Amino acid sequence: MLLLRHASAGERLSSPGVDRFRRLDEEGRATARQLVLSLAEREITEIVSSPLARCVETVVPIAASLGLVVEQRWELEPDSALEDVKTLLFDLPETTLVCTHREIFELLLGWDAPCEKGAIWVIAKDGSELVPTLYIEAPTDVRTRQGQTV
Fold it and tell me: What is the pLDDT of residue 86?
Protein backbone atom coordinates (compact mmCIF):
# COMPACT_ATOMS: atom_id res chain seq x y z
CA MET A 1 0.00 0.00 0.00
CA LEU A 2 1.21 3.50 -0.82
CA LEU A 3 0.51 6.19 1.79
CA LEU A 4 0.91 9.64 0.21
CA ARG A 5 0.92 12.99 1.96
CA HIS A 6 -0.86 15.63 -0.11
CA ALA A 7 1.30 18.03 -2.12
CA SER A 8 1.95 21.66 -1.19
CA ALA A 9 -1.11 23.76 -0.49
CA GLY A 10 0.41 26.89 1.02
CA GLU A 11 -0.24 28.06 4.56
CA ARG A 12 -3.09 26.88 6.78
CA LEU A 13 -6.16 29.10 6.66
CA SER A 14 -7.77 30.86 9.63
CA SER A 15 -10.01 28.08 10.90
CA PRO A 16 -10.42 24.33 10.33
CA GLY A 17 -13.78 24.92 8.63
CA VAL A 18 -12.26 27.31 6.10
CA ASP A 19 -9.01 25.33 5.79
CA ARG A 20 -10.95 22.29 4.53
CA PHE A 21 -11.24 24.07 1.17
CA ARG A 22 -7.54 24.95 0.78
CA ARG A 23 -6.33 23.88 -2.63
CA LEU A 24 -2.92 22.97 -4.01
CA ASP A 25 -0.64 25.87 -4.80
CA GLU A 26 1.46 26.06 -7.97
CA GLU A 27 4.23 23.89 -6.47
CA GLY A 28 1.65 21.35 -5.31
CA ARG A 29 0.06 21.12 -8.76
CA ALA A 30 3.51 20.52 -10.29
CA THR A 31 4.20 17.77 -7.74
CA ALA A 32 0.83 16.14 -8.47
CA ARG A 33 1.72 15.99 -12.18
CA GLN A 34 5.18 14.60 -11.41
CA LEU A 35 3.72 11.86 -9.20
CA VAL A 36 2.19 10.32 -12.34
CA LEU A 37 5.69 9.55 -13.63
CA SER A 38 7.11 8.70 -10.20
CA LEU A 39 4.44 6.04 -9.64
CA ALA A 40 4.27 4.72 -13.21
CA GLU A 41 6.07 1.48 -12.29
CA ARG A 42 3.89 0.78 -9.24
CA GLU A 43 0.77 -1.34 -9.43
CA ILE A 44 -2.15 0.84 -8.33
CA THR A 45 -5.66 -0.60 -8.60
CA GLU A 46 -7.50 1.80 -6.26
CA ILE A 47 -7.04 5.39 -5.16
CA VAL A 48 -8.53 6.47 -1.84
CA SER A 49 -8.25 10.01 -0.52
CA SER A 50 -9.25 12.34 2.23
CA PRO A 51 -12.17 14.39 0.86
CA LEU A 52 -10.31 17.65 1.48
CA ALA A 53 -9.50 19.46 -1.77
CA ARG A 54 -5.72 19.39 -1.39
CA CYS A 55 -5.68 15.59 -1.11
CA VAL A 56 -8.10 14.98 -3.97
CA GLU A 57 -6.21 17.39 -6.23
CA THR A 58 -2.95 15.57 -5.44
CA VAL A 59 -4.22 12.24 -6.77
CA VAL A 60 -6.50 13.33 -9.64
CA PRO A 61 -3.67 13.31 -12.24
CA ILE A 62 -2.67 9.78 -11.19
CA ALA A 63 -6.28 8.60 -11.28
CA ALA A 64 -6.76 10.14 -14.73
CA SER A 65 -3.62 8.47 -16.07
CA LEU A 66 -4.77 5.06 -14.78
CA GLY A 67 -8.47 5.43 -15.63
CA LEU A 68 -9.43 5.16 -11.94
CA VAL A 69 -11.93 7.03 -9.80
CA VAL A 70 -10.80 8.70 -6.56
CA GLU A 71 -12.78 7.30 -3.62
CA GLN A 72 -13.12 9.94 -0.91
CA ARG A 73 -13.17 8.70 2.71
CA TRP A 74 -13.77 10.74 5.86
CA GLU A 75 -11.49 8.38 7.82
CA LEU A 76 -8.50 10.06 6.14
CA GLU A 77 -9.33 13.59 7.32
CA PRO A 78 -6.79 15.27 9.64
CA ASP A 79 -8.86 14.88 12.82
CA SER A 80 -9.79 11.20 12.38
CA ALA A 81 -9.28 8.66 15.15
CA LEU A 82 -6.48 6.11 14.85
CA GLU A 83 -8.86 3.13 15.00
CA ASP A 84 -10.98 4.53 12.15
CA VAL A 85 -7.89 5.05 9.99
CA LYS A 86 -6.49 1.58 10.71
CA THR A 87 -9.83 -0.11 10.07
CA LEU A 88 -10.05 1.56 6.67
CA LEU A 89 -6.45 0.78 5.71
CA PHE A 90 -6.77 -2.90 6.66
CA ASP A 91 -9.86 -3.18 4.45
CA LEU A 92 -8.04 -1.82 1.38
CA PRO A 93 -6.07 -3.95 -1.12
CA GLU A 94 -2.25 -3.83 -0.99
CA THR A 95 -2.32 -2.10 -4.40
CA THR A 96 -4.12 0.99 -3.09
CA LEU A 97 -2.74 4.52 -3.21
CA VAL A 98 -4.00 6.43 -0.15
CA CYS A 99 -3.69 10.23 0.08
CA THR A 100 -3.98 11.90 3.47
CA HIS A 101 -2.54 14.50 5.86
CA ARG A 102 0.45 14.97 8.17
CA GLU A 103 -1.77 14.34 11.19
CA ILE A 104 -2.63 10.84 9.93
CA PHE A 105 1.04 10.04 9.28
CA GLU A 106 1.79 11.10 12.85
CA LEU A 107 -1.01 8.89 14.20
CA LEU A 108 0.20 5.86 12.26
CA LEU A 109 3.98 6.29 12.27
CA GLY A 110 4.77 8.71 15.10
CA TRP A 111 5.53 12.40 15.03
CA ASP A 112 9.20 11.88 14.15
CA ALA A 113 8.65 9.86 10.95
CA PRO A 114 9.46 11.87 7.83
CA CYS A 115 6.41 12.85 5.78
CA GLU A 116 7.18 15.79 3.52
CA LYS A 117 4.43 17.05 1.26
CA GLY A 118 4.15 14.83 -1.81
CA ALA A 119 6.19 12.01 -0.23
CA ILE A 120 5.09 8.39 0.11
CA TRP A 121 5.49 5.59 2.61
CA VAL A 122 5.16 2.04 1.33
CA ILE A 123 3.14 0.29 4.04
CA ALA A 124 2.93 -3.47 4.56
CA LYS A 125 0.25 -5.24 6.55
CA ASP A 126 1.76 -7.62 9.10
CA GLY A 127 -0.92 -9.30 11.18
CA SER A 128 -2.63 -6.47 13.02
CA GLU A 129 0.17 -3.99 12.34
CA LEU A 130 0.84 -1.51 9.57
CA VAL A 131 4.58 -1.52 8.94
CA PRO A 132 6.36 1.26 7.04
CA THR A 133 8.88 -0.43 4.72
CA LEU A 134 10.14 2.26 2.34
CA TYR A 135 10.11 6.06 2.25
CA ILE A 136 9.90 7.66 -1.19
CA GLU A 137 10.75 11.36 -1.26
CA ALA A 138 8.48 13.78 -3.06
CA PRO A 139 9.36 14.27 -6.72
CA THR A 140 11.10 17.55 -7.41
CA ASP A 141 10.79 19.57 -10.54
CA VAL A 142 14.04 20.22 -12.41
CA ARG A 143 13.26 23.95 -12.40
CA THR A 144 12.87 23.90 -8.60
CA ARG A 145 16.20 22.10 -8.14
CA GLN A 146 17.89 24.74 -10.28
CA GLY A 147 16.60 27.48 -7.99
CA GLN A 148 13.79 28.62 -10.27
CA THR A 149 10.19 29.03 -9.31
CA VAL A 150 7.79 26.41 -10.59
Answer: 96
